[in-house]
Each structure stands twice: as structure tokens, then as C-alpha cells.
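Supplementary Methods S3. Complex input for the 2-oxoglutaric acid-bound model.
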Amino acid sequence: MNAPRNTQYRHLEAHKIAGSMGAEITGIDLSQDLSEEQLADIRAALLDNLVICFRDQVITPDQQLAFARRWGDIHLHPFMKGMESHPEILAIIKRPGDKKNFGGAWHTDQMFSPSPAMGTILYAKEVPSAGGDTLFANLYLAYESLSDGMKKIANQLRTVCVGDNFRQADGRTRVDRSTSQSGDMQVKDPGEVQTTSIHPLVRTHPETGRKALYVGGHVQRFDGMTEEESLPLLNFFMDHAIRPEFTGRIRWQNNTLTFWDNRCTQHFAINDYPAETRIMHRITVCGDKPF
Ligand SMILES: O=C(O)CCC(=O)C(=O)O
Ligand SMILES: [Fe+2]
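Predicted complex, serialized as C-alpha cells:
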């Protein structure tokens, strides 16, 4: 049932970090211009492993951006304000005293957009002495492990995804969430950007052709149903999608860069370092319309 993860790469090595997904990549220096061959291997490693991490990468924001641009256009966050010097990069900052963290619920990025991010490239600038890991879940396995009967039902459903109301975050809205930050992270008005979208619950990955159970905290209900009608089944899909055997975690170190595929994974940033600072630089790459 697991994805084939034993591709032989010519320009890097991939070391698995969990049974279901995830790999640490060695042999790549992201401060250098990558060749097309290296890039092709990184793409294969991402498709095979869903989440890939590179340790000990000493890179500038410009170098992180240059790497991200090799994958497509940069997706700007409609709600969160980017760095002054690099608006395409979101600085995710949590300091001692901040109660909430960014991404502290199971979700997949920008699911509320008509064309959600294909991937996210997160770079650790300063991490706590322990904690602050990020959990990931393999949504291919979530789909493939359903019974035929449930697959049939899932294939007929479409989700209504809302940017402003994270169902998993106790119903806190974007504005509620922003006021909990120390001021390092600022929200902006999304303006005309569409922040509610409808997607198929079962999504076909445009590159691998595999089906994934495309659920996350932005899903409010199923299309054509009330919230009350949707919740029992939605809760089942949400719980099922994060079964421990479908998950893995990244333990960050300073200068770790992780690239994940939002089309077939969910993630959850753990908020377990109340007295320490965590600073990450995040870039999302544009994706296509789920089908
Ligand atoms: O800070 C993290 O570990 C992840 C936060 C998050 O959800 C994201 O960057 O999309
Ligand atoms: Fe996220």
C-alpha cells in the first residue's frame, strides 16, 4: 500500500524518516545553483516521499526564493503579511509569551484558494531546544485504506473550504488568531482574493496520478449539505486521515529546510515550547485546481 519510495537517485540520497512518508535528503547544497538533473531528482524524491528535508543549509532569503522559483510562481498569502524585505516570504515567529502558533491544527496549505499551493518550503532560522516539531500525514494512504463502499461515497463529495474560519481552531477567526500574536506576525486584508473554495474530497495528484483524501481544517462542510449534516462524516475523514501509521514528523534544527507536497499531505505545527522562540521562513509555490 505504501508509495514506491525506493527510486535510485543519481544526484542525491534519500533516507526515510517514517514508514508512511518523509525523507532526509543528502548530497544537495541549496545555496548553489542546481542543475536540471539535480532538480529532477529532487522532484522525484518529493513525489516518492511527499515531505523532504535538507539539513545544514546555510541560505539567504534570496537563495530560498531562487530555489522556490524553480518549482513555479510564488503564492502570496492572502491574509498574512510577508517580510518587509521579501514580501514573498512569510516569517513565522513565536516568542515566549505568545499563546498561539501558526499552523497549530491539521490542515493543508491554502485549501481555501481555488488553486491551493502545490508545496511549501519552510526554512528553520531559530528553533527551540526541544519541541516545535511539525507532524505530517499521508493523504494517499488515507484514501487507499478506505473500504470500497466508503471510497464510493468519498468520490461523490465536494468540500466547502473557508480561509477565515478554521473549524479545527475552536472556531477562532483569522482576526481572533491575529490578536494572539506578539505583533511579529501581521494579518492583512485579503481584498478581492477568493478565500472560500469548493474542492473534490478525493483529489487526483496531477503528477503521480494517485488519489488522495483531500481533507484539512479549512473544510467547513460538504457542498450541498449543512454543517450539522456534514460533521459526522467529516469528523470520520479527519480522524481517519491522521491515523498514526499514516504520519511522520520533522524534528527541526537551525538551517533545516523542508519541502512538502500539499496535494497529498496534511501537517500540524506542535505548540509545545512556551518559553522559547521559534522563527521560520516560509514560501509557498502556486499549484493547480484540484480535480
Ligand atoms: O511552523 C510550522 O512548522 C508549520 C506552519 C504551517 O502550517 C505552514 O508553514 O504552513
Ligand atoms: Fe500550513
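The mean pLDDT is 92. Residues 103, 107, 109, 267 surround fe (ii) ion (ligand 2) (CB under 6 Å).
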